[in-house]
Amino acid sequence: MGGLCVACGKAGTTSAGGAGSAGTTIGAAGDNGGVASDGGDDVALGTGGASGAGGNTSAVAGTGGEGGIAGADGGGAGTLSADASDASSVCSSANWCRSASGTAADLMGVWSSSSNEAWAVGTGGTILRWNGSEWSPTRSGAAEDLTGVWGSGPEDVWAVGSGGTILHWSGTMWSAAASTTPGFRSVWGSGPNDIWTVCSSDLSHWNGTTWSSAVPPTTVIPFRAIWGSGPNDAWVVGWSGLTIHWDGTAWSSVMAVYSRVLFGVWGSGPSDVWAVGNKIEHWNGNAWSTRDGNGGALSGVWGSGPADVWAVGLDGAILHWNGAFWSHAVSGTSVTLNGVSGSGAGDVWAVGNSGVILHH
Questions:
Q1: Which of 34, 153, 157, 216 is the most buried (most CB within 10 A)?
Q2: How does 252-263 read in b/e, with b if 16+ C-beta sit within 10 Å?
Q3: pTM for the whole structure
Q4: What pLDDT score was predicted for residue 21?
Q5: ∠126-262-10 over CA atoms, to 5°?
């Protein structure tokens, strides 16, 4: 599963699903929110119609259809070139538009604070900045693979990656922070003086002055991603259905229903959290539940609110939650997408391998 496991730990062992059929596709949800004819834990998402004229889909909710995935558009007619380095602004039928990145590096993470401010990071120390009209590279001096990026504002951005790399953007330049951790995967914070990073077996915290290690409450590793709604509410997800929760004082283990790897996590608040991997899990404030039994190999999730959530993953997969059900969206690429972020419902970025950047 290219690009989903760079910094440390072993790669996921998912396999790609077959191409979707041409023309109209119908997706039906099962009684408990699963998809009919679930192919099993490790069946990845299909890429849409491999050929044919496309066609609109009919989303069938079914009994208990909140967790179901609606059928995707037949895809072949809307597929774009996988070469992103010289891409022009060409859009798929779902209004995901290619944005020229100027790089062929695999892009692993993205973070956006406004329509004029976004950052993307990737292999070989790649850092790109969006200024409202174009992406351009910025120099950090780092050559390690970068896997996560997050900021509290335009003058406070953090990027993390392999080799224990922690970089900070002050608004004018990048600087490196000292670290003894072998490699980071994800970074998130509630503000400039409360930032967490995760590696395969370690949690690190920034208090505005120094980085310190935190002991995780479990030996079930590796960790993959972190997100929180505030200083007293944060989630880390990883392998074996692992989720751990921060309540402002201590980390505690909370097992998800799904017992395999979870790659991404995001929520609109303490009682509305999504975790994605080969299945889609939802936290309602009391317990995790599986909202889709065959979400595909999904690597990132982000939303503007409880009724507008995006998930991305293998073979250009993009899924959207509208508050009632998940549906496939045509991305226009077959390249694996590794991250998604935005500043609002009308400003969403997805990044992936081979320098692919999409905007919605």
A1: 157
A2: eeeebebebbbb
A3: 0.78
A4: 36
A5: 60
How far apart (Å, rounded) are the C-alpha atoms in residues 89 and 85?
12
pLDDT in tens, 224-233: 999 999 999 9
**Domains in the chain, CATH or no CATH each:** 89-359 (2.130.10.10)
Name the DSSP class of 3: T
DSSP 240: G
pLDDT in tens, 154-169: 999 999 999 889 999 9
Strands (E), 104-222: 107-114, 117-122, 127-130, 135-137, 146-153, 156-161, 166-169, 174-176, 186-191, 194-198, 203-206, 211-214
Q: Can you say how many angstroms the Cα of residue 245 is from the centroid of all Cα atoms in its chain?
A: 19
Six token digits for residue 30 = 């099962």
**Positive or negative torsion for Cα 328, 69, 18, 357:** positive
